[in-house]
Design goal:
The complex is a heterodimer of chains A (295) and B (706). With 295 residues, chain A is mainly alpha-helical. Chain A has helices at 14-23, 29-46, 48-51, 88-124, 126-141, 144-155, 159-185, 189-196, 201-209, 214-237, 249-255, 265-293, and strands spanning 68-69, 76-77. Classes of the chains: A mainly alpha (295), B alpha/beta (706).
């Protein structure tokens, strides 16, 4: 029977469908707040050159408290200046760039490693599972901070190395989550159906199973970006972060922590920046979970 | 009991114009509308209907347990004359579990896995009454004996996972009985159980109702079970009761077209392919927020009259009227008095006999053992490190073109393993499986050619699981077409997808739909389309309709038969539903614990001589026909474990006709009753031939479907 393909209604475009999916987050109050915070920081990072009142690495009046006017009286150090006289607000705004580049990228890399491991362990079972699970247990049994310190201290501190360290330390956790999801999904009848038509394993794992695990994984990814932001902050605080003089939130806290009693503004504001961004991602994750659980 | 008189002599339970709604994102969704029920002491009423008809919601509303988003929006529930809406939370808590008890579908989910059963049982009297531990223990033990559990002492000290599913459900019923409730709500209490176990529970429920004079509300989708347990029945459809009356009134003189449709859509002993074929109800259940105006059944009804049936005469639907001369028999239909049932001849499924063709599948002495490695130290010392699960033992079977071979048996009988070996997901341990002349017993699916794989496909059981929720219907079908090498050009693939949708009678715009936008029956149709994408010569259907609603079951069954007729496909139909098997199968194979105990043509297997297990199975099937009398054979004991099967005949531990030591020592011989009808049993054939039929038609000789 000849059939004209044209007589079938076309589906709406892929773009429209994904936008509709994203729009669901509007139904969650916390999710919207989280998204708002994240959008705020993304705008800050994108428009840093326009928004920041001063260049981040230029030295002005040292040790100015918040709301100190500049010497020429035309500007204002809204959040004060540090020991070298650099404007703290401008440094925080510029610092957001690195965090917002590095944290999602590092999380993405960790998923790139963790997902195939988890798929293989959960779907193949047997010795593959035994080996991968053993490896991940070994890595997870290390105190995570010590692990970071060892890695960065060995290979040196740079953006790429932070990325590698985060991937190495988070991939086992991601593997476990994926493995758990796969163990459940592999017993679905559509997986049997794919097996009975002789599909190769990689196709079953990537096309039949993985898309159905996306919900929990997206929520987990949001939380994980938050953790990575903290990690980057901690590494900066330990002096293992990005090399100076470019502003780095963790590094800013570390630099002036000895003076934080007398000049709290030097440390408090970078701290607030970190926690607000992490909060944003956590709230977004909560919102996504809330929306996905509704019918 | 606070606020409720113990010696109240009015109705135990009364629902007056009860309306219940759920409040969701999409707004208010009425789940139950204008529900009325009066239940007296010792009476039993059944609520029967398809999924989403609101029957469980009614039970939850009686318990006042509707969750955060449900609420009673109209009417009242009176328990012993007391309006439950006026009860405080504390009073309700006292009522639940002591005066009103509930038994749910899934026994394992109702029992706490980390507490012994005894502790859980004792909690009931300890919580609701002022008794000592000893008294509670004694009562718990007594009630376990009441529900006929062997060895109550052992059960008291067991954890839920240590007893079988049927025993678990008995414990749950015991728990419900412990506080001598006046009202027992049973929500599909046997749906999760095997049919022979179900028979035992149903008998128990009927006995309890009599012995303790408990009032019961029995919720089920199975008309046969309602007949076995209840005196009155309410037939529900899409949130409203469409017909209510005594079981005999509703089953024998139904007035509502939906009730009639239900009985025409289920295979009864009176239905057969030629004279009384199954009649599917067309269309599908309306969504709760999308009900038609007037009669909710209107769009699917053969008697629909525009202008009368689509006008709401009371509230949002049509009014109930009482059948003259039959007090209490009410019908929610505007036209019921005008319907001429005698001349109603709906078009049934096409039941043209198919001529069996050449042999397609031959299974010879196939065995499938699974190895279990025991890594415990004890096993290392004794040297018995490998044990075998004998999932399939000595399977012999033939199937011809356009034949339907049913494989029947309860869970654990090895029928799924058999399907897996056929499909190549497992390889046979021994024996041969010849498919179109080639031995595929030891060829895993990866080693088979695309053509071989495509010519043997499977239809799965669970419609909610059979399609991948992440991909569109079209993409999933297209993948199969490409995989089997039917077409490769994208346009031709797309055309073939549309043809497949036509084949299973689904609209073409479904290609872009995702599975969640489809109803259960529609998903199952897509599953069938997928199986037939590679023009298979053999299709294994693993319980293809058992998870579907009654009104769509017949339609999907008919679809399978139509496609089979068109393509001369061999159908291996795996099922536990003997009524359906009797209707559509040409040959039947009965399995028990990995063995074939009986095989033959459908007529041979369903008439004496029977294997004792076949006999018990037949007797266990609930039949929704008042004109049928069955022998009652309740199997004792549990299904033995496949790792440690009984010696001799595998059925000897539960066989009601066991003849002695030989059953325990010698494997039974395959005795041929007539060519092709084989029974493996030690009992002499003459004796088996003398057995009376299990199912006998009494009273009228009219088939019940008339």
């Amino acid at each position: 029977m000849a059939v004209d393909v044209q007589d079938v209604p076309r589906r709406e475009s892929a773009l429209l469908r994904s936008l509709k999916g994203i729009a669901l987050i509007r139904e969650s109050m916390v999710g919207m707040i989280g998204l708002g915070i994240i959008v705020f920081w993304v705008l800050m990072a994108l428009l840093a050159d326009v928004i920041a009142p001063f260049p981040p690495n230029t030295n002005y009046l040292p040790l100015a408290t918040p709301f100190t006017p500049t010497l020429d009286g035309e500007g204002m150090f809204w959040l004060g200046t540090d020991l070298q006289g650099r404007d703290i607000l401008s440094r925080i705004i510029h610092g957001s760039r690195k965090v917002l580049m590095l944290a999602p990228l590092a999380t993405f890399c960790a998923y790139l490693v963790g997902i195939p491991m988890g798929l293989a362990a959960g779907y193949k079972r047997g010795w593959v599972d035994d080996v991968l699970s053993f490896l991940s247990n070994v890595i997870l049994s290390f105190p995570i901070l010590v692990l970071y310190v060892i890695i960065i201290a060995t290979i040196g501190s740079s953006a790429i190395n932070i990325l590698l360290a985060v991937t190495f330390a988070s991939a086992p956790g991601i593997m476990r989550i994926v493995r758990g999801l796969v163990l459940d999904l592999r017993n679905r009848e559509y997986v049997f159906a794919a097996e009975t038509r002789g599909e190769p394993s990689w196709r079953i794992m990537l096309i039949e199973i993985l898309p159905n695990a996306r919900g929990p994984l997206i929520v987990d990814a949001c939380l994980r970006v938050g953790y990575v932001i903290i990690t980057i902050g901690v590494l900066g605080f330990l002096g293992l972060g990005l090399p100076p003089p470019d502003p780095d939130w963790g590094g800013m806290i570390n630099e002036f922590r000895v003076m934080s009693m007398s000049f709290p503004h030097m440390t408090v504001f970078p701290c607030l920046a970190i926690s607000s961004l992490v909060l944003g991602f956590n709230l977004l994750a909560d919102g996504l979970r809330e929306v996905s659980l509704r019918d | 009991m606070a606020g409720v008189a113990q010696d109240f002599d009015g109705p135990i339970l009364e629902c007056r114009n009860l309306s219940i709604s759920y409040f969701t994102r999409a707004g208010e969704i009425p789940a139950v509308i204008d529900f009325n029920l009066t239940l007296h002491q010792g009476d039993s009423v059944g609520l029967v209907g398809e999924s989403g008809c609101g029957k469980s919601t009614v039970a939850m509303a009686i318990m006042r347990y509707l969750g955060g988003n449900g609420a009673i929006v109209g009417g009242q529930v009176f328990y012993k004359g007391r309006d439950l809406a006026t009860c405080s939370e504390e009073e309700l808590r006292q009522l639940r579990g002591s005066d009103i008890a509930m038994v749910y579908q899934e026994p394992m989910a109702s029992l706490n896995p980390s507490m012994t059963l005894g502790k859980q049982l004792m909690e009931v009297p300890l919580c609701h009454e002022d008794v000592t531990e000893e008294e509670a223990y004694a009562r718990a033990k007594q009630v376990l004996a009441d529900v006929k559990l062997p060895d109550p002492d052992r059960v008291m000290n067991s954890y839920p996972h240590q007893i079988s599913g049927g025993q678990q459900q008995r414990v749950v019923i015991a728990m419900a009985l412990l506080s001598n409730p006046s009202l027992l709500l049973l929500d599909e209490p046997t749906t999760a159980l095997d049919v022979t176990v179900e028979a035992g529970i149903v008998e128990l429920i009927a006995e309890i109702a009599e012995k303790f004079n408990t009032s019961m509300v029995y919720i089920s989708h199975n008309l046969g079970l309602i007949l076995a347990t209840c005196r009155r029945v309410n037939v529900m459809y899409s949130g409203v009761v469409v017909e209510s009356g005594t079981v005999h009134e509703v089953f024998d003189q139904m007035r509502h077209p939906y009730t009639k449709g239900l009985f025409n859509a289920i295979p009864l002993p009176g239905t057969n392919k030629k004279e009384h074929p199954l009649v599917p109800i067309r269309g599908q259940l309306p969504l709760p927020h999308d009900r038609p105006s007037g009669c909710y059944f209107g769009p699917r009804c053969d008697f629909f009259e525009a202008g009368r049936c689509d006008v709401a005469s009371e509230g949002s639907t049509v009014a109930m009227t009482e059948v003259e001369g039959e007090e209490g028999h009410v019908v929610r239909c505007t036209l019921w008095q005008e319907i001429d049932w005698a001349n109603y001849k709906p078009e049934g499924l096409d039941g043209t006999e198919l001529q069996a063709g050449e042999e397609v599948l031959t299974v010879k002495a196939m065995k499938k053992y699974y190895e279990i490695r025991d890594n415990s130290i004890a096993a290392m010392i004794s040297g018995e490190r490998v044990r075998h699960v004998k999932a399939n033992e000595h399977i012999n079977l033939e199937a011809r073109a356009s034949q339907t071979v049913a494989v029947v048996g309860e869970s654990g009988c090895g029928k799924s393993t058999f399907a897996k070996v056929l499909m190549g997901l497992e390889t046979a341990t021994d024996g041969a499986v010849e498919f179109n002349g080639q031995d595929i017993a030891s060829e895993p699916v990866q080693n088979r050619s695309p053509k071989q794989v495509g010519s043997m496909q499977m239809v799965f059981q669970n419609p909610f699981d059979t399609l991948n929720p992440s991909h569109t219907v079209g993409a999933q079908l297209a993948r199969v077409i490409r995989k089997f090498g039917v077409e490769s050009d994208p346009d031709k693939v797309q055309n073939r997808v549309l043809e497949l949708l036509d084949l299973v009678k689904l609209p073409r715009e479904f290609v872009w739909r995702r599975p969640r936008q489809l109803s259960g029956g529609q998903k199952q149709r897509v599953g069938i389309a997928r199986a037939f994408a590679g023009n298979p010569s053999l299709v294994v259907a693993d319980e293809p309709v058992s998870a579907l609603d009654v009104s769509v079951q017949a339609a999907v069954t008919g679809l399978l038969m139509d496609i089979q007729r068109e393509y001369r496909t061999t159908l291996i139909f795996i099922s536990h539903d003997l009524s359906l098997v009797r209707y559509l199968a040409d040959r039947v194979v009965v399995m028990y614990l990995g063995h074939i105990v009986e095989k033959g043509t459908t007529d041979e297997v369903f008439a004496p001589p029977y294997h004792p297990y076949t006999e018990a199975l037949l007797s266990a099937v609930p039949i929704a026909d008042t004109a049928i009398q069955k022998k009652r054979i309740i199997l004792e004991g549990n299904l033995p474990s496949v790792t440690n099967p009984p010696s001799g005949c595998s059925f000897n531990t539960r066989c009601p006709r066991k003849i002695g030591g030989i059953c325990e020592t010698e494997p039974p011989p395959d005795v041929e009753d007539s060519p092709g009808h084989v029974i493996s049993c030690h009992i002499p054939l003459e004796e088996l031939r003398a057995v009376e039929p299990v199912i006998v038609q009494v009273e009228n000789d009219q088939p019940a479907a008339e």
